[in-house]
Amino acid sequence: MAHDKSDVLHGSLALMVLRTLDTLGPQHGWGIARRIEQISGDALALNQGTLYPSLLRLEQMGWVTSKWGASDNNRRAKFYSITRAGKKQLAAEAKNWERISDILGRFVKPSKESI
Amino acid sequence: MTAIRIFLGRLSGLFRRGRLERDMEEEFDFHLQSQAAENLRRGMSSDEALVAARRYFGGVAQVKEAYREAHSLPFFQLFWQDLRFGLRMLRRNPGSSILAILCLTLGGRCDQCCVQLDRGGSASSVPAVAHQERMMAVDGTYRGATGAPGNSTDVSWPDFQDLQKNCQLSDAFIVDRITGSTLAIGDRADRTTGSVVSANYFDALGVRPILGRGF
To answer: Helix (H, G, I), strand (E, B), or coil: what is residue B207?
Structure first.
């Protein structure tokens, strides 16, 4: 069963978090974790806890900010939002991933010309 | 810029540890409770729901440790811990502490003396040698020498005499050939490092013996 889920590639978690915050707006950690699992179709083996040190590092980089607020069930929760620098980083990282994925694609499915 | 920002963030974390710790506990608790509620909606029992929430989260203790590390400077924290431990130990045993401080002080002074004696011999900046800033070393060489270590030769005694007699650039010339010798005091003898030097050695260096005479 464990092989049905893929490990989160190093460095890709930051991209997922930034994309989630860019799309959904301010979210608490659990909301971000749920969104990542939903988008991946529950195919990622994400230890939800690993999200928090990653969020802290993104905050230290100045790519996200956090603020305490009230959740849907009226509990105090910490909400994260993407900053302008975070949006720029997201654009750069997305471009980088597209490039890497394109290169890997050429290895996985080599065209006749490249063989 | 990013490295400075991270450093400052971590540094400020050192002074807000209590608050950061409380925030982390509250944030993780919110996460676990929210996941447990979700698990309940999916049909798990209340006990099972919380256990499953913890499982999805990964090791809670490990995550907390990783989080603490990310908002602190481990080097400073360890240094501060060691310092506090040391001070506590000093306060607990004042007698042995004074002894330790005295030993360190004496040890420090001895080291300093040895370094100064050694430096006196090699003519670097030491108060024992007058005008050490005006001292220079002259070495011999030969045709075809590359300048690499070991490619120099001694200056001959006639050359030394010529220099002494004719060179106007220097106040004095001295000769120093570092060699081994046997030092005997009473019935005890030890092999030691010594120098064969010219008779004007101490006068030129401006070093006066406290007792007795030079040459």
So the answer is: coil
